[in-house]
Write a sequence for this structure.
């Protein structure tokens, strides 16, 4: 697995970037949002990556922000959504807006993505609605997109907690905790205490 690629930005085009490091140039597929936020050519850059292997293809998908990578990986968990389609969806709007739309069950924004029709957008919302957490606080939406939180959510739901209670407990998890087990324990403590 390749977690990230760091080096000089050699080339940036709509759809991919080339990062030069250690004498090699890595072609990394990117969303429109990542493209817009890349530094100038020749500057240092770090992209967090998703390493995708298929029978006939090995590809790297890169993101400047971890939350965009997390949403990309959540989209890949939806049946029928591959990496190119997931990138098209991420290019339709910023991560916060997409996450909010999914959490609220709104398909219009997702349908603006190239190649996404109404049925596919509805499937995305149906499969991810409970995995994308939008918690209201001080009048603004705070989007939590930690991949492990979907596992924490599933575990707490299987213990019989209500969805709203689970989301509230997850919103209070110490952000320094990274493992699913630690996050689950912390959520249980916060929900009981």
């Amino acid at each position: 697995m390749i977690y990230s690629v760091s080096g000089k930005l050699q080339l940036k085009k709509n759809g991919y970037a080339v990062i030069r490091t250690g004498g090699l140039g890595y072609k990394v597929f990117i969303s429109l949002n990542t493209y817009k936020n890349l530094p100038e050519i020749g500057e240092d850059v770090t992209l967090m990556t998703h390493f995708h292997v298929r029978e006939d293809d090995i590809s790297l998908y890169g993101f400047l922000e971890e939350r965009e990578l997390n949403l990309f990986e959540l989209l890949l968990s939806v049946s029928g959504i591959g990496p190119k389609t997931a990138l098209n969806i991420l290019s339709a709007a910023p991560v916060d807006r997409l996450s909010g739309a999914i959490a609220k069950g709104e398909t219009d924004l997702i349908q603006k993505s190239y190649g996404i029709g109404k049925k596919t957008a509805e499937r995305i919302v149906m499969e991810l609605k409970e995995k994308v957490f939008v918690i209201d606080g001080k009048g603004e939406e705070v989007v939590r997109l930690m991949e492990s939180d979907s596992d924490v959510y599933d575990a707490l739901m299987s213990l019989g907690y209500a969805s709203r209670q689970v989301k509230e407990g997850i919103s209070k998890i110490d952000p320094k905790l990274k493992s699913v087990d630690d996050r689950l324990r912390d959520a249980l403590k916060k929900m009981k205490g």
In short: The chain has nine helices and seven strands. The two ends are 39 Å apart (CA to CA). The longest strand covers residues 44-54. The chain has three domains: 4-64, 66-129, 146-193.
